[in-house]
Amino acid sequence: APVRLADYSPWPFALPAIHLAVDIRPGDVLVTSRLDLEPRGGAEALQLRGVDLEICSIKLNGDDVAGDDYSYRDQLLTIHSPPSKPFVLETCCRIDPYNNSSLEGLYVSGGLLSTQCEAEGFRRITFHPDRPDVLSRWTVRIEASRASCPVLLSNGNAISEEELTDGRHAVTWKDPFPKPSYLFALVAGELREIRDLYTTASGRAVTLRLHVEEGDEPYSTHAMESLKRSMAWDEQVYQLEYDLDEYNIVAVRHFNMGAMENKSLNIFNSKLVLADAETATDAELERIESVIAHEYFHNWSGNRITCRDWFQLSLKEGLTVFRDQSFTADLHSAAVKRIEDVAMLRNTQFREDAGPTAHPVKPAEYQAIDNFYTTTIYEKGAELIRMLHTLLGQERFMRGMATYVSRFDGTAATTEDFVQSIVDGAAQDGQPLGFDSERFKRWYHQAGTPELTVQRQWDAVKGELTLELRQSTPPTPGQTEKQPLVLPIAVALVGEKGRIGEEQLLVMDGDQASLTLQGDPGSAAPALSLLRRFSAPVNVQLEQSLQESLQLLAHDDDPFSRWDAGQRLARQVLLARASGEPDATVEAALIQALRQRLNAFDGGGGQDLAVLLALPGTAELEALQNPVDPPALYAARREWIAELGRQLADPLNQLLDVCRGEWPQAWPAGQGGRSLTGLAWSWLAAAGDAEARNQALEAVSGPSMTLARAALRALQPMEVDERDLALDRFYQRWQDKPVILDAWFALEASAPRTDGLQRVQALLEHPRFDPLAPNSLRAVLGGFTANVPVFHAIDGSGYRFMADQIAAVDRRNPITASRMAKVFSRWSSYGVDRQSAMRQAIDQLAAGELSSNTAEVVAMLRT
Ligand code: ARG
Ligand code: ZN
Question: Which residues form the Aminopeptidase N-like N-terminal domain (predicted)?
């Protein structure tokens, strides 16, 4: 039965203190837990969660609990009549982390024991309410053999170390901050440590420790530097400081997600820790920096203030994503970061909002909460915070944040608590708020991407442009009626010489609104720069002429709107080509505009040009196609890239000369030059330029991973000798580094070869393929689904193969399998043949035995 937001009630006990003793033995682990419990209110049975636990003993206030005084069934331990006064419950359980392939709870990854408890993994370690609103002070004693587990880590401070007999030892950890079970962590194994020191603004000395496998020490500098930058940024921008004497980060190879913010003991997917310029791309370095920041920022937005229940997940995730986005914007280019985030939102979150798994930022119910770690909760959630920031401005928003922290520090809060704090803090200056906060809260409950339709009238005599705006949100599964939302809409007029007048912020909160903008009387209609900085996460319906888009592309002072104008033209070109009717006028105009940009470039700041030239993502094109024809879109993209390479050959070659000088610069310097180089190689190679292919091939053996991977991306879609040579050289060079080899697996799996399916099968049998590592599974199976001609083969063979693979993964790792099942989410948008083939694959998956995680996703796909 689903869990419902409306059914929330507090747990009927308080649990102020927990003592855990974890005894690590060669074949199993014994977990003894002592819970200090205090009944709060009426006489109720005590119910604790527990999954796959073998009970050794249960004691209440020191006495064994008799067999008929408790029951353990359906993952629930019930003590029928607990005392009405405070009492101590001690349980001892045996667990088997050595055969736990789910990567939840305590599990083994490459000889290392580590935990993942969010969202509901702690119940696989011992009996516990395992809900985020039960906060306790934890003491954890870990005992193991020193030979196999010299390092024993948990949350908080190490308060004692013991030398025991038989080569065993123990370490006891105490965390002074009350926390829920999902933030518990434990790591035991053989690890190398890299140490550093950070002194906080108020003078606390914090020992920073990064723990990696032997041999990986040289690749830890970037992560450590990123951590220090994150700590300094949160002090400067949010006045939030770290609160303990040590901060640990552990890199593990087998991990379902990116990373986890456990109090003072972050656990990271090793691909998000280990990196330098030779082994990681510029984009990966920036991503690592931002994930390190994200987990660090959780210490306040997540740990000190946590979630009342899992419906509030976006309280911590949306806010923390907003914080990490701001961090990256401050450290690098704010314009480029905003553009990349919008591109990602449109291609993942808008797609989710438009399909069968659409759900609000605050869902009303769920079956498996793991299925809701989505781009809606994270990225759309961050957009809601960003809109509050836009509506209030930096100063008022920050006063709201300070109010939130002072009201809710040390508690488990709700999204309503958050919005109310922001609003109350902002209003301390006595000024009107400027928007209806009750209406704003609708954003949390309403799924779907709003459509903003804009019509306009230009009065040349007065020089006034009048806008008529309407908003509506299309129905989503289980939510047919939609209400108007609060939309902050930033607009300006753009003429031949740039922006005319000031930008305006229209706050729309009903179905309709109108606005008049002052332009130059007597002149031609100016271009409309709408939704500047992407001030609200909506789809815009507005008729814009080619001339207007070109004017914005050339003269708008908002980099997002400039980029958006170019994207609009590129979308037109690609959709027209995919429908078999290329639009020669738009193509010629766009090429001309790009040529001007390329000619004007003389080095430096190349990242802005690189994002401007990047083509729109597949998902956003598919959203505009009916029915969706993936191979036609794929072919259109390849042909257009070749056309760009032919028409712009001269400026692209000049560009390569300019950029070469930036190749050796260390990240973040030089990334613009490297991005543009990759783009030029792709376009020129697609146009048949042998010299570009050669340059690319050489880069695969060079010192920059960014260039090597750009080279592989340029060559990979083509049936040329250099492609196979390049892939082979890359494999030979990196075969002993699993984190890097995953990129090779992904490229191999997505190479559009005629025998693509057999090759993907062979990759799954490859000696270097690790079927228990979600990274490797995502590389091969994710690569395969990006292999458009093979995955979308009209006979349905690609879909059937994928369904079989998902079923196989589901038997070992439901969290990873249920995420993969979402590749079928757009089945109803394809033409009849693909539609029925994909539907059959979904039914085939549904007919087998599925975990509740995957069953929930499959059920959503079938409604
Ligand atoms: N809280 C983590 C983060 O975003 C994600 C952990 C998700 N884990 C899961 N099993 N769903 O930083
Ligand atoms: Zn997070």
Answer: 100-183
577, 631, 622: which is closest to 794 by C-alpha?
Answer: 631
Residues 208 and 224 sit within 8 Å (Cβ to Cβ): yes
Q: Which amino acid is at 344?
A: M
Confidence of residue 3 (pLDDT cuts 50, 70, 90): very high
* Residue nearest atom 3 in ligand 1 by C-alpha distance: 260
Q: What ipTM score was computed for the predicted complex, to two decimals?
A: 0.97
- CA-based end-to-end distance of the chain: 17
Task: Phi first, then psi: give them for residue 21, nearest 5 degrees.
Answer: -125, 120
Q: Look-up: residue for tokens 């020992």?
A: 207
Q: Give the distance (Å) from ligand 1 centre to CA of residue 154.
A: 18
* pLDDT per position as a tens digit, 227-243: 999 999 999 999 999 99
Mutating to test ligand 1, I would choose from 118, 179, 851 the residue with most ligand atoms within 8 A of its C-beta, which is 118
* CB burial string 118-155: b at 16+ within 10 A, e below: bbbbbbbbbbbbbbbbbbbbbbbbbbbbeeebebbbbb
Ligand 1, residues 117, 257, 287, 366: which to mutate, most atoms within 8 A of Cβ? 257
Q: Which atom of ligand 1 is nearest to the CA of 298?
A: 12
370 lines ligand 1 (CB under 6 A): yes
Q: Whole-model pTM?
A: 0.99
Active-site residues, by number, are: 295
Q: What DSSP character marks residue 60?
A: E
Q: Is 170 left (phi over 0), alpha (psi -120 to 50) or beta?
A: beta
pLDDT confidence of residue 505 = 98
| Tokens standing for residue 218 | 């040289």
DSSP 8-state symbol, 345: I
Q: Specify the DSSP class assigned to residue 311.
A: G
